[in-house]
Amino acid sequence: MLFKTRTKVSTEIPTASTADIAFLLIIFFLVTTVFSDDKGLQLVLPEATAEQVKISRKNILHIFVYPDGQISIKRGRDPHEQMISKDEIQGIMRAELESNPNLIAAVKVDEKSHYEDMIDVLDQLQMAESTRISIQPWIK
Amino acid sequence: MIRGSKQFNMENRVESKIPGSSLADIAFLLFIFFAVTTTFRPKDYAGNKPELPAASATEKVDERVKDILHLWVIPDGSVWINDVQVPLEGLAGQIQPILMSQPRLIVAVKADREAEFGTINEVLDQLKIAGAVRVSFATVKRRESS
Which terminal CB of chain A, N or C, has fewer other CB atoms within 10 Å? Predict the structure, then answer.
């Protein structure tokens, strides 16, 4: 009779440690995950092609950046330059875009200008939701 | 009767061992998971970090970490890709092969606010030649009060 008693083998998978493993994983991820902290002003450059697109003068708003950080604008056919402060660009651009949605902002920056001044202008233009922006060196 | 008393005396044995045979499987699973998912961030420029300009329209770059290429422009005019200095004229040649393997590449230009536009313009020209048209000018968010 004693012979016939079977050795019982446990068929259960012990799950007591699963929680520990899961927590270990969570902690590992918390410690190692690197979040992208890249922030900035996005811009898509034109492709380098030989062909030049001709744009009517009335669709261009020139914005000049001087080496000392001064800003001036020149509207389309109007030959006069108008000195403005940086904060005014946004308002002007909004008003101009209202009357002409095809307007292109041509930012001409002097080679000796600081990068910061260029970014300030770009920032103002992006805040004015201007999508057609051209950044070019100012060759006098 | 005899049989009954015998059974009564039998101790109910409780298994006290933790089965360790699956531990290796778990460890390997973890190892494979990490081997597949880990992307290493290339080293960044090691010198003094450039002082980024501030901008109100600053947006988060919405792209995977490995598709963002850091391009540093130091005030003295030197240009670095990650932690390697590259000559300005050779920039396009350096970026082209990277762009081939990662078509969704965004070049994050991390330039100092005092850098000259002449350098930036040259960098942009090189990027155009290489065909890396998605550019982000790294900025810090300008506080509304200032």
Answer: C
Asked if A43 lies within 8 A of B137 by C-beta distance, the reply is yes
pLDDT in tens, A88-132: 889 989 998 898 888 889 999 999 999 999 999 999 999 998 888
Task: Please give the model's pTM, rounded to 2 decimal places.
Answer: 0.74
Residue B146 confidence (pLDDT) above 50: no
Which domains are seen in chain B, by residue range?
54-141 (3.30.420.270)
* Contact residues on chain B for A118, CB-CB shorter than 8 A: 117, 120
Asked whether residue A74 is domain-assigned, the answer is: yes
- CATH code, domain carrying A99: 3.30.420.270
Residue B137 has pLDDT above 90, yes or no: yes
Tokens of A7: 């050795």
Lookup: tokens for B73: 């422009």
Strand locations in A28-119 (E): 39-44, 60-65, 71-75, 82-84, 104-109
Strand partners, B106: B68
